[in-house]
Amino acid sequence: MKVITDKKRIDEIFNRGIVVEILPSKEEFFSLLLSGKRLRIYIGADPTSDALHLSHAKNYMFLEELRRLGHEVIVLFGDFTAKIGDPTGKSEARIQLTEEQVKKNVKSWLAQIKPLMDFSDKNNTPRIVYNSAWLAKLSLNDVLLLAAQFTVQRMLERDMFARRLKDNKPIHLHEFLYPLMQGYDSVALDVDVELCGTDQIFNALTGRTLLKRLKNKDKFVIAVNLMENPKTKELMSKSKGTGVFLSSPPEEMYGAIMAQPDEMIEVMFVNNTRIPLSEKGEIMALGPRDAKARVAFEIVKKFYGEMRAQKAAKVFTSRFSKKGAPEEAYEKKVLKMGNRVLIDLVVELAGIKSKSEARRLIIGGAVELDRKTVTDPNLVIKLGEGKIIRIGKKKFFKIVPK
What CA–CA distance (Å, rounded) separates 180 from 186? Predict the structure, then answer.
């Protein structure tokens, strides 16, 4: 497989604004890229829920660009480590998942990332692997060997552990084992490069240490950004149900992007489109609504194709911008009047199974109250006769007093 070493193309990929840091150094890594050596590059993620959002999409889009340079890329599902629970950023231990939950989430993730990578390229197909293939086979002796490579003091350098100690909160022993297990992925795959978010640098460097000590091989770490709101610093989160979700139908995805705060336009432009950066100023000068519409179209097109993206834009314009009356008849709902929390109301009206799903709909801009989009799940509304509530694409409810 021929590797592309065109410096201009490589610079376009790495200077877009997605990469935050390359360890141990950007200079060494670029020298390797330009050498023509075919690298083995992987990204790993624990399928702890069935929800993926635009920040995840950005990672797989970036990995696909490296694949198109001719490198071998691997998509790793942490089906084993998901059952341990990553302590990263957590003030308490994660809930451990069952094998059935993990399998269900993996199936959902695969469907969501397929539009982002060319799995049909038979000359250089992205590999999909599961870390249970090697982690489930480790003996107690193997685990002791891995544990001997690190000190407790090293593990306690992680800020979330330091905070828990300060707050007198428990740190479970299995949480110390998590970085070892994730780090061993690098050894088992014998990789040259790991792609990870900035919140996973500790775990990625654990893998770098293990690979060096067990195989005397160096590994580079490419840390990419976490898509955060530049004003509020809020992150898209699959565990909190916040963000623009990849499983959304085209109209909902388009609407969810349009519902994002104006300060997120440039963030989504850089991370989730491949419109040349040279056009950024021109697009941003269109004003928030039109700039966001251009970004929304490009993102929906990536997942669903141009025709469905055009239809989604048309639906949004007619239903939201022009405030046109919906074609669907209102469904009358008999409810008790008075103050209600929006998320509870959405669960009751739409028959949604979980609050997390209702939260995703609300935050994604899929809920309207009297023709106005509402995005705060905890909003308290005064429910009165005649209120019109839209949930999703086609569900319109007219409230009748009980």
Answer: 10
